[in-house]
Amino acid sequence: MMSINLLDVQNVTKIFRDNRRGNDVTAITDISVHLKRGEFVSILGPSGCGKSTLLDIIAGLEIPTDGQVFYEGNVITGKKGFVSYMPQKDVLFPWRTVLENVIVPLELKNVTKKHAMQEAKALLPLFGLENFANSYPDALSGGMRQRASFLRTYLSKKDCMILDEPFGRLDAITRVQMQQWLLSIWEQLEKSILMVTHDIDEAIMLSDRIYVLSPRPGKVIREIEISIDRPRTHESMTTEEFMSIKKSILHTLSI
Ligand SMILES: Nc1ncnc2c1ncn2[C@@H]1O[C@H](COP(=O)(O)OP(=O)(O)OP(=O)(O)O)[C@@H](O)[C@H]1O
Ligand SMILES: [Mg+2]
Description:
The chain has helices at residues 51-58, 98-102, 104-108, 113-123, 142-154, 172-189, 200-206, 240-252; strands spanning 7-16, 25-35, 40-44, 66-71, 74-75, 84-86, 160-164, 192-197, 209-213, 220-225. It is an alpha/beta fold. The chain folds into 2 domains: 1-83 and 160-255, P-loop containing nucleotide triphosphate hydrolases (Rossmann fold, 3-Layer(aba) Sandwich), CATH 3.40.50; 88-157, no CATH class. The strands form 2 sheets. It has a 6-stranded mixed β-sheet with strand order 6-7-8-3-9-10, with helices on both faces. A hairpin with a 2-residue loop joins strand 4 (66-71) and strand 5. The protein is globular, with a radius of gyration of 18 Å. Bound molecules: adenosine-5'-triphosphate and magnesium ion. The site of magnesium ion has 4 residues, from helix 1.
């Protein structure tokens, strides 16, 4: 039996219409990507090539001009609630503390506040937020906000997580720690992850496959299997195998 992909994006195009000035923007054209259950896939591409637009479409927050999104074989185009989405710009409520912010997905599932708080509190140390449970987002650094946002996404507990530059604002050391953490979550919990990044090392380090997008309007210009043995550590990054993949991606992006 042919197994159905967990997520299937088929021939998706998005044109942002500008009715006032007539400057339509084609963000992405004819993008097809898929994610199998248990896979870790990255989407790598230059700034402005439509990566966030693509994730917004998968999450059902934007409607594509053309094309469809499938989840386990069913059309979900324009429908929300199938994936855990960590958007690029965090959407923390300024009037809620960190702890109150991260439990939002649990509250939406009618978990009692007490239980939600307990569950979230236990995870705060892992996310380096244990001393900020009662702080408001305004009082956090960019990296802390990102980790709070990540924890909130994690607590929405869908099998499929889509992450938009989840480590973009972290320093190099925290970034490597969080990458290792993400790999362990992915391995233990059998999550399926589709991640957007513009960091080539990060994409190779984490992924089973990488889609490389062209500059805007984004389209898939290359798909690469990464068969570097797991578990991967930062030492994997200095191997010849890693270097040659990196070189070849740089070549594709013509940097
Ligand atoms: N709501 C919108 N209305 C009009 N144009 C938009 C809208 N959202 C995005 N765009 C345009 O679509 C293009 C792609 O934007 P998008 O944010 O998806 O790129 P990106 O690859 O995520 O960039 P970055 O790496 O900088 O985050 C850009 O030209 C942007 O101006
Ligand atoms: Mg983006």
